[in-house]
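Technical note accompanying the year-one report. For the benefit of new consortium partners, we illustrate the data format agreed upon in the data management plan: each record pairs a sequence with a structure-token string. No post-processing was applied to the example shown here.
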Amino acid sequence: MTRNVAALVEPPRHVAREIQPLSPDQARALLEHTRDHRLGGLVSVATALGLRLGEGLGLRWIDVDLDAGILSVRQALERSGGDRAARKPLIERRKELRLRFKAAAARSAERRQIRVELKEMREKWRAVQTTLHTSEPKSARSRRTVRLPNVVVTALKAHRTRQLEERLAAGGGWTDSGHVFTTPIGTPLDPRNVTREFRALVLSAGLPAIRFHDLRHTAATLLLALGVDPRTIMETLGHSQISRR
């Protein structure tokens, strides 16, 4: 393979690091490992179609037609805002208080005082924390409609069945957000929680320690290996141009 498949997708916005796409065998192992996990559908979509994490979490059932086998990316779900500089000392202080709480004697005056301080910190945290919200896709080309491979249709049908079971179990506690990927009570998934859970899944599967974003590069690698032309890959991933590097 002479073409640089990593050039088919743009690098993430944070500091560049080595791109680690999975091999076809590793990708199959990951899909098999996550098949019965509640994140299995999301992993399948990202691995086969190269959706960004925010795009996957922003999917609603009105964006997906399993009978026709198509999916439309119309929005993204992300966490942003807040005051990062103000959060850092609060995080450090909270760690310190929790350690002191564990070391303090049960029912002691020190523990009662620490509880008061932690409660005050929660109020300060609300003023500087980030918020979860939907946004427009990254670029005009990121708004796209793609065909679903059979493996993704199967995964999403299984996911929909699991979600319906969770909805019945939640009863009146269910929040009808309309999102494809939700918590057990119907609320949208937080990208931070998904990132942590994905890291644990990769570790338990015995695979290299990749990021969720590396599934986007994996998708480009797999599509190219299947003989899909670069322009179609570009359109599938919602990329604005093909690099010649």
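Partners are asked to follow this layout when depositing records. The first helix runs from residue 24 to 34.
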